[in-house]
């Protein structure tokens, strides 16, 4: 079979999806389980029904579109990603993997090929973690890394729980997420970093992913009036901030592979003439070596425990809210991706994913691998996120090639 998808069709669908939740600066805002997210899912379902694909969902809101194989009893080969975005997200993060998966299924169907096993496209719920934390929620519940009942109790900033949102959109009646069986899983994604572009490579062959740890830090003191309270008598948690921030950033510099990020920072009550009673911030630690990531965790934990010595009457609390261990992807699937890039003449590079993806969760229980394509200046989670049609085509062509190879179907350039 000739391994080429319909590039124009894929791009047109990407642009149509981008109109749902489109922002003034050219990005997208389709946060998980909002009306806009569900509208995007409905558009995807419409395209699937036009191709006579079978659509189902599970109780955490993951969607699956199936092209039946000769033997429906065999676990399906699944291709997927997500449709939810950051509040000021781009048009390609996640959605490219979903729509490229749909394009692969449509291309195979148009060639009148019926594989032995079924093919599915997965739309995972809340990969981004923007409205509800943690991220990779749907795939995490599927993989048994997150508990459905606990996740249903998680609330957004407005106090709406995941369970309420699932109920509202009719997802709660779906099947048990952990009961689904898969043969293998493939995911195409923009790199979300600058490496492929800098090295002028068309395709990233992703061999694994960094481990990630997320934390909430709370610094507490005594709220008081800014004018009458002398500096020497204050219990101001802000005095702990410089030392903590400096240490977090130093942890991220222990070696070139380490990452440390303070993504959110808020003083409470947030009035300019009130000494804050508490300060909250988030910390994101990442490393491709699990032992090193554990050492980073220990260093952060020890430092926070000693912070209260800086200012009498203050305290510091560190709470880890999520840990995604280092992932190594499946060797056979990696070879199929590398072979596809070589067969089609695309320059390629083996690499580790620096970002979190649904693949990190799925890989806990299913053979998994990923394909990256470059994005302009490595920018993602941003309305300026950009790729060219030929880059989307290259990634989807390699995805098609890897799919056919995994199914045991002969391919040609």
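Q: What amino acid sequence fits the structure above?
A:
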């Amino acid at each position: 079979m000739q391994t080429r998808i319909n590039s124009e069709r894929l791009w047109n669908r990407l642009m149509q999806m981008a109109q749902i939740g489109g922002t003034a600066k050219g990005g997208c805002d389709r946060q998980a389980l909002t009306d806009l997210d569900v509208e995007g899912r409905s558009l995807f379902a419409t395209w699937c029904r036009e191709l006579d694909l079978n659509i189902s969902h599970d109780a955490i809101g993951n969607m699956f579109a199936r092209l039946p194989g000769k033997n429906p009893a065999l676990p399906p080969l699944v291709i997927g990603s997500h449709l939810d975005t950051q509040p000021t997200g781009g048009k390609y993060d996640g959605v490219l993997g979903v729509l490229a998966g749909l394009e692969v299924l449509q291309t195979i169907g148009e060639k009148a090929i019926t594989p032995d096993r079924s093919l599915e496209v997965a739309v995972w719920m809340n990969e981004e973690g923007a409205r509800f934390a943690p991220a990779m929620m749907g795939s995490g519940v599927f993989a048994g890394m997150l508990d459905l009942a606990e996740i249903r109790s998680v609330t957004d900033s407005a106090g709406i729980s995941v369970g309420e949102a699932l109920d509202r959109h009719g997802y709660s009646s779906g099947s048990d997420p952990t009961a689904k069986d898969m043969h293998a899983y493939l995911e195409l994604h923009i790199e979300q970093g600058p490496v492929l572009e800098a090295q002028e490579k068309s395709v990233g062959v992703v061999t694994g992913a960094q481990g990630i740890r997320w934390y909430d830090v709370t610094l507490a003191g005594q709220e008081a009036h800014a004018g009458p309270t002398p500096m020497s008598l204050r219990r101001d948690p802000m005095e702990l901030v410089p030392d903590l921030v400096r240490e977090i950033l130093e942890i991220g510099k222990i070696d070139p592979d380490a990452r440390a990020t303070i993504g959110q920072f808020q003083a409470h009550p947030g009035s300019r003439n009130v000494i804050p009673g508490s300060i909250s911030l988030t910390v994101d630690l990442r490393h491709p070596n699990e032992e090193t990531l554990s050492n980073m965790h220990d260093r952060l934990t020890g430092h926070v425990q000693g912070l209260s010595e800086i200012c009498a009457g203050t305290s510091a609390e560190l709470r880890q809210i999520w840990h995604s261990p280092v992932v190594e992807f499946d060797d056979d699937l990696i070879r199929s991706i590398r072979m596809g890039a070589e067969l089609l003449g695309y320059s390629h590079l083996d690499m580790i994913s620096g970002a979190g993806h649904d693949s990190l969760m799925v890989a806990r229980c299913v053979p998994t691998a990923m394909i990256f394509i470059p994005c302009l200046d490595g920018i993602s989670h941003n309305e300026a996120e950009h790729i060219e049609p030929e880059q989307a085509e290259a990634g989807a062509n390699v995805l098609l090639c890897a799919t056919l190879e995994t199914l045991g179907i002969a391919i040609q350039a």
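Q: And what stands out in the fold?
A: The longest strand covers residues 211-220.
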